[in-house]
Amino acid sequence: MAYQPIENYGIIGNMRTTAHVGINGSIDWFCFPHFDSPSMFAAILDDQKGGNFQIAPATDGFTSKQFYWPDTNILVTRFYSPAYMAELIDYMPAGEAVKEHGRHEIVRRINIVHGILPFRLYCKPAFNYARDQHTVEIVNQGANFHSANQSMRLLSKFPLKPDSDGAVSAEFVLHEGETATFLLHQIKPGEGLIHYTEDSAHEHFKKTVDYWRHWISKCTYHGRWRDMVHRSALVLKLLTFEPTGAIVAAPTCSLPEAIGGVRNWDYRYTWIRDAAFTLYGLLRIGFVQEAGQFMHWLESAFHDLKPDEPPQIMYGIDGRRKLMEEELNHLDGYRGSKPVRIGNAAYDQLQLDIHGELMDSVYLYNKYGAQISYNLWRRLRNLVNWVCDNWQWKDEGIWETRGGRQHFVYSKLMCWVAVDRALRLADKRSFPANRSRWVIVRDQIYEELMTKGWDRNVESFVQCYDSQTLDASVLIMPLVFFMAPTDPRMLKTIHAINRTPSEGGLVSNGLVYRYSPQHYVDGLSGNEGTFNMCTFWLVEALTRAGKEHKKYLEQGRLIFEKMMTFSNHLGLFAEETGLGGEALGNFPQALTHLSLISAAFNLDRSLGGQD
Fold it and tell me: 0.85 exceeded by the pTM?
C-alpha cells in the first residue's frame, strides 16, 4: 500500500486516543488504549509492516472525498462514481454512547446512497509498533486478534477470512439503502461475544452526534472564520486526555519535518508550554471546563516538586516523568524518513520559557475561569522564586534545539512574563509574595532584553544574545504585553522577519520559518518546512500593529486568509507546511490550532464591522 500524503488524513477520537483515517478508507495510525500506548495500526510509519484497517470499494474508477458530520468529530468518507455512491462513517463513541456499555471502540459504518457496490475489508494489526506477533481466531460474527499484551476483536456480519500474514479480509456487496457496521474493540478478560444490531449502532451514532454538538454549542465565538475556529476547538478537545485533563501536543509520533530527514519526534505527551497555550485558546472561546481539568492535572503534576526544583518541560499524560527516547529501526518511517522515534529525550531539557506560558495561563484562568487555590499558589510562588534565581542561565529554548544551550531571547522574555503575571496575580488575589524582589527582577530582565536581545545592525530582536539570527518566536512580544505593537523596535522586528529568506527574512509567500537553520546550528541535519504557529503569530503581531496603521491590519488579514488555504480538506493543520503546500510534522498539532483560534479572535475583533 502506497503512502498517503499527511494531509490526506482525518482523525476520530474519544479523548483517550485517536485514529487517522485516510481518504482511501484506511486507518493507518491507531494506538490503544491511550494516545501514548503502542500502536496497533502504523502504516503511516511503515506501509509494509505497520498494519492498517481498510474498507473501500472493490472496484476501480471511483472518487473519494471526506468531511465531518456537522459540528462533530465523526468522519465521513464518500466513495462515488456515476454508477454508485457510498459513505463510510468512522467514529469513536463518546458521551452517553460510552456510558451504556463502558467500551472504547472504533465504529465503521457503510451506507449505500444509491447503486450496487462491492466492498473489500482488510484488517492487519501490527501490535506494539509491529514488534509483537499475534494469532488470529475466527469466531462467530468476526475475528479475535491475540498478542502477548493485548487482545482485540473485529465484529463483522460478513465472514472474515484469515491470511497467512496475520490479517483478515472479506468481500461483500451492498445494495442501495443497505448498511453494514463493523466494530473494533478490546477483549476484556472473561468477556463473551458482544451482540449488536444495525439499530443499536445507529443509536450510538446519534448519541455521539449529540455529545459533540452539545460540546461545541458552548463555544462563544461567532465571528469571521467560525467554521475554522470550531474545527480547531474540536481538534483541541480530541487531544485532551479525559481521565486526567492532560493535553497532548499531537496524537502522532515521528511524522517528519522534512521528507527523508531525521527531525522526527514523538509528540504524544503533555508539554507545559503547549498545554498552557491550549488552555488560553480554549478560554478565549468559552471552554472553561477543559481549562479547569488541565489546572487539576497541573496541580497533580506539581504535587511532588521541591521548592528549589523547576517543573519538567513535558510529562506523560498520566503524569509520569521519564519519557525515554527509543529508535524503532525495524520501521522504515514515513516515506523513508528515519529514524522512527518513540519517547522524547527532550523531557529533561532546561527550557526557561515554560514558566512564562504557565503563569500566563494560570493568570488568565484565575481571571476568566475560576479562582486558584492557595495550595497551588504556594507551588507557583516557589516556581517564580526559582525563576528569579535562575533566569540568567542558558537553556535549550522553545525549539528544543540539540546544539547546546544559549541565552535565547524568547526564554528571557517568558521569564519576564512569569514574574509579571505572578505580580499581577498576587495583587489581584492579595496572595503573600516577595513583591519587592519580583519587581526588581522583572525590570532587570526587561532592561537586559532591550540591550542584549536587540541588534542595532539587524534592527530587530534576535534569536539569542551575541547573534544576528532572526527567530519568529519574538513576534509574541506584543501578544504578551511586553512591548507595544507599534513600538519602533517592534515594527522594525516585524519588518525584518517579514521579508523573504533571500532578503534575510523568514517569510515565504506569507508562511513563516521559525528560524533559518542555515544561520543557526541547532544540532540536527537537514531542513524543515515553515512553522504554522509562527505564521499565526505574525498575523497577530500585524493585527495589533494595525490598530494604528491600517496597512498592517490589511496585511495580517491577507496572510491569515492565505493560511486558511493551507489546511487540509477537513480544516486540519500539521506542525509545518512545506514549500509545495504539503503538511509536514506531527498531525494535527495543538499549537497550530490554538494559534489559529487566537489569531482569528483578535483579527476579527480588530476588523469589527468591516467587510
Answer: yes
